[in-house]
Amino acid sequence: MPAHGTGPAGEVDEVARAVLTASRLLLAVSARSLAEVEERLTLPQFRMLVVLSTRGATKLVVLAELLQVAPSTAMRMVDRLIAAGLADRRINPDNRRETRLTPTEEGRRVVGRVMARRREEVTGIVRRLAPEQRASLVEALTAFTEAGGEPPVPPLAQVTPARRTGAGDRTT
């Protein structure tokens, strides 16, 4: 990485560049893990499936807000997930005019397989870091994700076989 920036603006730019570089790597890991496990889905569709798997029954408008897409875009994505057998529409028993979207069991299995593959690849990268770099990375990424409002992924020991769905992975 180039020389450290001077002053607050330089420091912020340096951090932003480091995060953008890391995000390229993480996006590549995400795309590979999805392509290796599930060829039917695009990355945005998978993001939607992760949100549904994490949150459970969700209204379309809420789903669109969480994914920061237009409701019409979210509807098209949902239609494709339903056609693929990965999501379902259900009437809200408390308000029959309202439908909620849920992942199917197959949808949960797909999320679990993709997230397991992603965890394997990220673990391989992390193993190449020195122990002190790992500790610094955990601290920095925890602060970053908290600042962005992203819920943490549960430790592997807390992910039971029935729940290996990437719960906690809000968007990718």
Automatic annotation (TrEMBL):
Domain HTH marR-type: 12-146
Gene3D superfamilies: Winged helix-like DNA-binding domain superfamily/Winged helix DNA-binding domain (1.10.10.10)
Region (Disordered): 145-172
Entry GO MF terms: DNA-binding transcription factor activity
Official protein name in the record: MarR family transcriptional regulator
GO biological process: one example: response to stress
InterPro entries linked to this entry: HTH_MarR-typ (IPR000835), MarR/SlyA-like (IPR039422), WH-like_DNA-bd_sf (IPR036388), WH_DNA-bd_sf (IPR036390)
Name of one Pfam family that matches: MarR
